[in-house]
Predict the 3D structure of the following.
Amino acid sequence: MDANRRRFFQSLRQDDRRRKVPANMNSADRMLIQVVPRLLPARCGVSDHAILLATELKSRFGIDTAFVVLNSEERCSLPFRVVHCAPEQLAETCRSLNGKRPGAILIHLSGYGYAADGAPLRLASALERLRADGGFRIGVFFHELSASGMPWTSAFWHARRQKRALRRIAATCELAVTNIRVHVDWLERETVRASASPVVYLPVFSLVGEAQQPVPLAQRDPVMVVFGLGVTRQKAFKELLALGSTLEQIGVRQILDIGPEFEAPGEVAGIPVRRMGALPAEEIAGHFERSTFGFLSYTPYCLAKSGVFAGYCAHGLVPVNAQHFQGEIDGLKEGENLFSPQAIGAMEPAGLERCSMAAWRWYSGHALSNHAAAYARWIDAMESAPQSADRNYE
């Protein structure tokens, strides 16, 4: 895994050099501080999201990034400044990183990353102190909200604390961003934020690259990909084992298992499974471009926050989700942008091609460049209209 991670982030630096930053951009004067619970490249989806965003902001907009890690002492090598501190030191750390000037801070919020019970109350207190100082505008990407469950589960009993922490954090932020409409609705309905601006809706971007134009299905191999972390793929293969006849109907000749920590079966209904293990992003992208289908088992209303689903769509695979749904969710329609196993069996090649393109077009509206542009606009707006409460820390 260490060698793979080095190759993965070496490719990011090479891609960064290939892009041209506009000559009028001065990165020394433009910086975003990103706060994460841990920084574990290629092992944590939130970490990879933040790192790819930092790379895009630097290369496309000349905006530098410094990372503040609040809940982990594990180190990694990145082409960015990284500081580890306790939540109580957040305000002092941010002022130090920004040269004691006013600035922008983006929190990547996933409750269980910051607290064992999913209720990041120490982070909430730290952001309230930072907000009271007046020197920073605070943005939050809500990767997750609160958990839910039956009364005999810990999630049920922690939900109230989690929501209380979320409301406190939302009250400090001038920019609130999240990835699914259900989250948007809750934040608009249940929180009072520091800005009257509406919650920004941005489904997640792919962590394994994006196709500028999808390869036509006729030029791809009759392969189905199962991608993700071990628990994700284990769930997917459990569903696949019951779909042998459907896989034969759609012409699947091989299944690629890509990811760590799980021993996939050797075959599914006589179709061989090729175990690839954990791979660098550029190799995963290559397999996606040559394959026809991508399979997952995910709650439909959460698909827009799935990095696995984003990766499939970004490369124009035909997404097949084990769970059926009706109507439209986050701009997705079954039979248009993706299929359930029940719907795909009798589909003609032309219908699969339409689905591939529809999935890619849906993704293109919230690709990595769209995320970076949203934060760049926010930072530019701050610079042109500084808040009256800003203090001089010199």
User: Anything to note?
Assistant: The chain has two domains: 2-202+367-384, 217-364. Residues 1-28, 387-394 have pLDDT under 50 and may be disordered. Residues 154-172 form the longest helix (19 residues). The first strand starts at residue 31 and ends at 36.
